[in-house]
Each structure stands twice: as structure tokens, then as C-alpha cells.
Amino acid sequence: MLDHVGGGRTAVRGEPPRAVELALGQYWLVRFVALMRPGTIAAVGQSAAQVLPPGTRVLRHPANGGGPKLTAGAAHPPILGPKRSHQPPGEPAAHGAPPPGCRHPLPGAVRRHGRRTRVTATRERTAGSGLRVLIIGINYRPEPSGIGPYTAGLAEHLAARGDEVTVLTGLPHYPAWRIARGTRRALLRRETVRGVTVIRAAHYVPATQSAIRRASYEGTFGLTGLLASLPLPRPDAILGVVPSLSGGILARLTRERLRAPYGLLFQDLMGPAARQSGIAGGGAVAKATAAAEAWAASGARAIGVVAEAFTPYLASLGVPAGRIIHVPNWTRLAAPAMTVPETRARFGWADGDQIVLHAGNIGLKQGLEQVVEAARAAAERGDPVRFVLSGGGNQAGAIRAAARDLPNVSLLGVQPDGIHASLLAAADVLLLSERETQMDMSLPSKLTSYFAAGRPIVAAIPPGGGSAREVERSGAGLVVPAEEPEQLLTALARLRAEPALVAELTAAGPAYAAANTSAAACLARGTALIDEIAA
Predict the structure, then answer these.
(1) Are 290 and 276 in contact (CB under 8 A)?
(2) Residue 282 near residue 290 (C-beta atoms within 8 A)
(3) Closest by alpha carbon to 409, among 386, 432, 428, 433?
């Protein structure tokens, strides 16, 4: 529950004092990083016997490379059930051509690793046959935005094709950065969601961001996630989703214990994020974060990236280019629940106002302070512009406080899918905002919905960064430098004055989305990543 908002900090009932929080962060960071040393996994497995349910035994098992294996009693059967063969009957699928709606080819039939050539192929499956897949990532359904819906979509797609899928995840907390109401509090909890076995591991959720709080967040999920993974039998493929960084580290640790192949899917880059996102103390830990990221990636059989701009960074960590696969996020946009006139009337938008909508997370990396500055300048000179921020995040309170005296700024909070789609359709301009330091750490998932919505985009972001290249490639928007409010207002004025430009940008977005971010095409690439890991 929120007690008060002020000074850019959201106070949350029960939040530990700063001194305690710092000590906890240091403790969890040291404990979790220590797990990357040889010989520590077995010790964790032995100590886990003290906290796991009665009837669970910790054994050393030759099939698992001598590492700890947990055998569950009658009340706690193995989570994944009997192992299935991952080599079903049938001919290999055609490989190498891009699926419809995707401009990038799938991993080729011949993949080169150093001087040796390995032949791989996507396998066709029949009902009842498939892989045993373990996906590890802190974000999952029912989180309404960010990474969670994409991890859930891939897991459910794999389950629908006949794979046996388990997801090891955290507690729902994004984008508000507080545990969702109604969440059952337990150290470990198991449920079945849309054909996927979901194991939830409890962890610390920081109400505000700093390097130490992030370490606590990563470390607590790392330790409880490791505990949750101990009873699992050997999967055919392990996929770690980054962020969180602990998702990637857990994937490699699980590989070490079970001798199963693993891969990673990078939704954001954690090393650059530490430097670029504006988190307090982030620059000081960027080098250590990049080292942990490199360790997680070094043993991966295949690595997926949602943006091709991530490839140079991963190459700098020593990842061979042949292991990197482009796995873009798909468009997630429901049908609008209201017509455009109904939407504008419901939210009180005047016909003469240019509605500039930012729909998504309100966090540090979005740098929405520049929007408040632009709104103040627009109000002072009488520009007919209204900025609407729809979403939630750990900076929502600070932005609300900064804009409280501005009549041309509205904060709406997170909206249901149908209302969210209605807002996109009714806006005059869709706004992408980023800090000027954010060059290549992420590719905002909101862009896929922006393209599909068919409205002109104005992106106040670093020129030359990954997001800028994507907007320019689409032809659906204008890019202006981040943290220069006057240039943002100039771009908005240009759209008010040039209806032909608006028509051009409006047409380009849906065409780009259809060609590059359809669900079928992007899920096919996610499936190919899993098959490459299991091959």
C-alpha cells in the first residue's frame, strides 16, 4: 500500500530502512555470485534438504554428473513428469528461409562453430511427442506488460505444439515494482497456467531502484530459484531469459548440475543497462554485471536477441556470431474496446488538442522528465498539446508530482488490453521517450504495438541508438534528440502542420508490423531457438 508520494521517492509500508537494505543487498549479491565458483552447487543442494518439504531426499547421482539430485516423496512428485523423447518421427522441416511476416532468415541448416560445421534442422512434431523444456525468467503472466507476456507467449506456444514446458519464475510485480494484489505468499509455489507448469520462487521486490536494491532483487531470486530447480529432472533444453541477470545465471547453473544444454534470450542487456539506465550506483557495478553476463553467456549453445543492435555487445563478451539468433518480439495489440470518439470523450480530450500518448512503463530509462519539461514549455506558449502517460512504474509517483501543476499532462495508470488499444487508436501521436544515455541496452516492446496501431510516432531518444534505428527502419516516425524538449515540440508542430506527412507515417507502421513483427513469424523464431539449444 502506498503511504505517500514525494520528492521522487515512493514510500511503501514495510520497506526496510536504507541501512538494512544496503546490508541485505550486499549479503545476497555475495551469496549469489559465490554460486558461480566451482563446487558450490553441490553444497547448496545438500543444504536445501533442510528447507525442502518432508520426503525430499538429496542424493548424488552419476547421471547428473555427480551433482545433487532431489528425489521427491509421494506428496511431492517430480515436477516435469516422465521424460519424453525429443526426436519424433517425421522428416526434418525445411530450414533457412524466413517464415511469412519475418524479414530475417531462421538459423541456417548449416551452422559454423569455429572451423567445424554442424548440421542442424528444425524437427517436425506429432501430437504427444516433443521436448522437455525449462524456461527460467523472473517475469511471467499475469504481468500485463514488459517481458512477462512474451515469455508466457513462447512457453504456451511450445506447450501447444506438444512440448512439456516448465517455467521457473518470480512473483508478479512489473510494472508497478510491488507484488501484485492477491498473490499467494510462499517461498515456492507451483501452478498450471494454460498448459504450462509454472513454479514461482519468492524474492525481494524493490519499490525504488538502486544498484544495491537491484542486487538484492537478483540475488534473492537467484537463491530461491536455485532451490526450486533442484527437484527437476533433466530437460532437453533450458532457456534463461535476461533480464533478470539471475535468469541467465540460473540457466547455466542448472546446466552444470543436470548436464543439459542451455541457451539465453536477451530482452535487455544488463551490462549496458547498469551504465545507461540511470539507476543510482549503476556505473560502479557495470563492469561486474558485464562479467556475470559474459559468464552466463559463455556456455550457451545458442543465444537469442530481440534486437540486432545487441549483437556487437555480445560479440565483445566473446560470444561467436554463429550462436546468435534474432528473435524479435511480436505485436501484442488487442481489438479496441471503444471507438475513437468514445475514447476521446471518456478521457476528456478536446477535439482541438493534439493528444501525445506514451503507453508503457514509467521508469528511469524512459526519462519522462523531458516530457514534463516539454509540457511546461507548451503550456507557457499556448501550444494545443496534451501529453497522456498511460502505464505504471517505479517513477510514476515522481512524474506525477513533477507535473501536478500542469493542466496539459495526464497520468492514467495501467489500462486493460481493450482500453489500451483504444487509447493508441485515438491518440494523434504515439511518443517514445528514452534517457539520452540509453543507446543499446534495450528495444522497447511498446514499439511493436505502436507500429500496429497506425498512428505517427515521435521518438525523443538518442540518435544512433538501437531504438532510433528501428523507428527509422520502419518509416513510421520522426526521431528527435533525447532531453531536448524544444525539438520534441518542433516535431509535434510539424505533424500539426503537415497532414501529408501524418498520412505517410500512419501507413508505414502497420505495413512494417505485418512484415516483421507478426506473432506467427516471431514465435517461429523462438521455437527455432529452442530447437537449436536441444539439437
Answers:
(1) no
(2) no
(3) 386
| Residue 410 resides in a domain | yes
527 in the same domain as 511 = no
Q: Is residue 16 part of a domain?
A: no
DSSP label of 162: T
Is 21 within the bounds of a domain? no
**What is the reported pTM?**
0.72
Residues 353 and 215 in one domain: no
Helical residues (DSSP H) of 230-281, grouped into ranges: 245-258, 270-276
> CA-CA distances (angstroms) from residue 308 to 160, 266, 391?
28, 11, 27
Q: What are the angstrom distances between the C-alpha of 171 and each of 65, 153, 183, 200, 517?
A: 31, 17, 8, 6, 28
Paired with 190 in beta bridges are 199
Q: How many CB atoms lie within 10 A of CB 417?
A: 15
**By C-alpha distance, which of 161, 164, 180 is closest to 172?**
180
- Specify whether 522 is located in the same domain as 495: no
Residue 382 domain boundaries: 340-516
Which residues sit opposite 241 in a β-bridge?
265
Do 379 and 450 reside in the same domain of the chain?
yes
514 grid coordinates: 505485418
Among the residue ranges 52-61, 174-183, 263-272, the one predicted with the least confidence is 52-61
Say whether both 373 and 505 belong to one domain: yes
Contact (Cβ atoms closer than 8 angstroms) between residue 426 and residue 455: no
- Tell me which DSSP letter residue 168 carries: E
Q: What value does the mean pLDDT take over residues 208-212? A: 80
Q: Under DSSP, is residue 279 helix (H, G, I), strand (E, B) or coil?
A: coil
Question: HEC states along 61-121?
Answer: CHHHCCCEEEECCCCCCCCCCCCCCCCCCCCECCCCCCCCCCCCCCCCCEEEECCEEEECC
Beta bridge partners of 60: 68
Strand order in the sheet with 196-201: 188-193, 196-201, 164-169, 132-136, 237-242, 262-266, 302-305, 324-326
Among 238, 164, 245, 237, which residue's Cα sits nearest to residue 203?
245
In angstroms, the first-to-last Cα distance of the chain is 48
CA distances from 315 to 105, 108, 274, 469 (A): 20, 19, 18, 19
Distance CA 9, CA 15 (A): 12
Predicted confidence band at 145 (pLDDT cuts at 50, 70, 90)? confident
Residue type (1 letter), 455: R
Residue 480's beta-bridge partner residues? Answer: 460
Q: Could you give the percent of the chain with pLDDT greater than 70?
A: 73
Element holding 192 (H helix, E strand) = strand 188-193
- Establish if 145 belongs to a structural domain: yes
The interaxial angle of helices 18-34 and 211-229, nearest 10 deg, is 50
